[in-house]
Amino acid sequence: xxxxxxxxxxxxxxxxxxxxxxxxxxxxxxxxxxxxxxxxxxxxxxxxxxxxxxxxxxxxxxxxxxxxxxxxxxxxxxxxxxxxxxxxxxxxxxxxxxxxxxxxxxxxxxxxxxxxxxxxxxxxxxxxxxxxxxxxxxxxxxxxxxxxxxxxxxxxxxxxxxxxxxxxxxxxxxxxxxxxxxxxxxxxxxxxxxxxxxxxxxxxxxxxxxxxxxxxxxxxxxxxxxxxxxxxxxxxxxxxxxxxx
Length: 245
Description:
By secondary structure, the protein is an alpha+beta fold. The protein is built from 5 helices and 9 strands. It has helices at 6-22, 24-43, 75-79, 147-158, 224-237; strands at residues 98-99, 109-111, 119-124, 129-135, 167-174, 184-191, 200-208, 213-221, 239-241. Strands 1-9-5-6-7-8-4-3-2 form a 9-stranded mixed beta sheet. A hairpin with a 4-residue loop joins strand 3 (119-124) and strand 4 (129-135). The longest helix is centred in the N-terminal third of the chain and has 20 residues, at 24-43. The protein starts with 5 loop residues before the first helix and ends with a strand. The model is unreliable at 14-67 (pLDDT under 50).
């Protein structure tokens, strides 16, 4: 073994490896290894270094909501009389209408899914389903001062094949107390033309252009007879709620 001990031979091998790393190729190799080590270190941890220039986020301070007062709008007077299409401009700008849940208390009906994307559903024992929803921020679909045209545009937006001639006028309750006579609000209705085996459907809607809001009620039943009864229940029990002060 040339007079060298095993330990001395191992030191010589280590020195040779160090020499290979010391040359030009060794410098490149060291750089690759160092880069790999840095990459592994970064990949294995999460760095959270705040930017001194970034604005600080301050938690909002809770405030007590105050009622919205609309100057010149008499909510009681508007709620006390009929709301035909031509009267839509008497409503306050930007204050949406509402819709009651009176159908939940009507004989034969019970609540279904509630407040799903703003929609409430009601189910009848005979298989009918009613879905009622108020939509807000409807400005792109409105025609100023013309609720009837705006309502027709709402139907066309939902289905481009629906023409204004397909729509017929009808009335829902305009506020009032349950089981008592109430003013009427004018709506447009789209009746289905059911084919064999298909459900009978009816859609009632009204756009309130001045408020930027709309009501939309769909009724789906097994046949035309049950649909007629369900529509009568909706007209009797569901009320469009006028905007308040």
